[in-house]
Amino acid sequence: MDNRLKVLRAERKWSQNDLAIHLDISRQSVNAIETGKYDPSLPLAFKIARLFEMPIEEIFIDKID
């Protein structure tokens, strides 16, 4: 799954640690999500969407292979 998390975070001038604090997760988890090594749980995806005030579909993009 692709995502726009890094771009959205950069637009707010937040570090990975800043975002991790907002989401109550580790900085390493933020990095793993941004690099596509980890897909967030559905509750975390909703939390991210609420934080950025966007629909989940505008943040996370399903790759069709």
Description:
There is one protein chain. The chain has 65 residues and is mainly alpha-helical. It has one domain (2-53): lambda repressor-like DNA-binding domains (434 Repressor (Amino-terminal Domain), Orthogonal Bundle), CATH 1.10.260.40. The chain has helices at 5-11, 16-23, 27-34, 42-52, 56-59, and strands at residues 2-3, 60-61. The chain has a two-stranded antiparallel sheet. Helix 2 (16-23) packs across helix 3 (27-34). The protein starts with a strand and ends with a strand.
Computed CA radius of gyration, to the nearest angstrom: 11 Å
Give the strand order of the largest sheet, numbering strands 1, 2, ... along the chain: 1-2
The overall pLDDT average reads 95
**CATH architectural category:** Orthogonal Bundle
Write out the CATH superfamily name.
lambda repressor-like DNA-binding domains
Here the CATH topology equals 434 Repressor (Amino-terminal Domain)
Produce a short descriptive summary.
With 65 residues, the chain is mainly α. The protein has helices at residues 5-11, 16-23, 27-34, 42-52, 56-59, and strands at residues 2-3, 60-61. Helices cover 58% and strands 6% of the residues.
Question: Top keywords for this entry?
Answer:
single chain, 65 residues, mainly alpha, 434 Repressor (Amino-terminal Domain), 5 helices, 58% helix, globular
List the helices and strands and how they pair.
Blueprint: E1 2-3, H1 5-11, H2 16-23, H3 27-34, H4 42-52, H5 56-59, E2 60-61
Antiparallel strand pairs: 1-2
Helix pairs in contact: 2-3
